[in-house]
Amino acid sequence: MITNTHETLQNTTLGVATRAIHAGQTPDPTTGAVVTPIFMTSTFKQDGVGEMRNGYDYSRSVNPTRTAFDEQLAAVEGGAYAMSFASGLAAIDVLLRSTLRPGDNVLIGNDVYGGTYRLLAKVFVPWGIGLDVVDITDPAQVSAALAAKHYTYLWVETPSNPLLNITDIAATSALAHQYGTKVVVDNTFASPILQHPLADGAYAVVYSTTKYIGGHSDVVGGAVVVNDEAMRDRIEFMQNSAGAVPSPFDAWLDMRGLKTLELRVLRHSENAMTIAQWLEGHSGVERVWYPGLESHPGHEIAARQMHGGFGGMISVQLSGGAEAARRFAASTEIFTLAESLGGVESLIEVPAAMTHMSVAGTTLEVPANLVRLSIGIEDVDDLIGDLEQAFAAVRD
Ligand SMILES: *Cc1c(COP(=O)(O)O)cnc(C)c1O
Known about the structure:
Blueprint: H1 5-10, H2 16-22, H3 64-77, E1 81-85, H4 88-97, E2 105-109, H5 114-127, E3 130-134, H6 139-148, E4 153-157, H7 169-178, E5 182-186, H8 191-194, E6 204-208, E7 222-226, H9 229-242, H10 248-259, H11 261-280, E8 285-289, H12 299-305, E9 313-318, H13 321-331, E10 336-337, E11 347-349, E12 370-374, H14 380-395
Parallel strand pairs: 2-3, 2-4, 4-5, 5-6, 10-11
Antiparallel strand pairs: 1-7, 6-7, 8-9, 9-12, 11-12
Helix pairs in contact: 2-3, 3-10, 13-14
Protein name: Cystathionine gamma-synthase
GO cellular component, one term: cytoplasm
Pfam families: Cys_Met_Meta_PP
């Protein structure tokens, strides 16, 4: 491999920002380029028949820009192996498909990302996988389900989308282990800065790097992080066999984003906390959902489990109902009306009419007066001013 910092940085006590900036980032041996180049090549010259140079043969199998990002992410996560993909869902698909066989079962929370639910319910279930849904924040429901049948995986998302429900990763992992079930945590909302699922007992971590890791709303990507070498081999085999790899440019954007992740996530969290507290006292608001607020049902667990902040996502129910939510979301000037999250710019959306429209009428249905905010890293006073003028527009 071209990069060799992985081993050395894994085993040090270097801080997360240092790892983010240096792990996997050895200057290019040919030119000394400080930044890993975007290796836009599909194939690599062999030194003799079957003699690959540093293990590189074909970019679906392995590409140096992707390797650099994978090593960087593994080091930031504190995991042994990271593998990146063309999207978060591609990462989730490969993790599941590399291990599940028809007849196996998966248990998920009732508030998982809609795309994850769709992949499981519409692709894996017809393929022969059993799927059950529980309220994952209720340990009694989770243990009753685990006792009733064997599940290969228990899928956890915390904070979840859009109500930012909090699941205790350590307690849930300990419970699942009693039943021989592996816990997978979708850590997209918290990012590897605020939450460390592998250290808390999870078996695997997945990301949509489209969100905080890429961080600039300019790339779609995903990743899986595991400690188990045999699992790494199975995922790599499926990654190469099915082929949903990120382009070298995608991997480069993710790599660039990851270097500033800590700074950004701390600012996202600080801005979000300020805005959540401001919203909680506002007359146009019925209820604020933010795990940093003491009023949030998961606050105590979040305060233990998340480190350095509570993330950049806030959901808020408006007192004016569904119509107020729509008018509010259409009235902001700095917040952009758009799906997705985790970029430097603030976004606003109405889940019931946008991201969560497909779950209307199911157990995943969300309140119609709910507005979801992805708090960016702009000046917080400007963001509050923008929300204040949107409240005024709703009242008019
Ligand atoms: C966006 C998202 C995904 C899916 O990722 P894509 O990159 O859009 O495929 C999965 N989980 C969560 C929590 C997400 O927010």
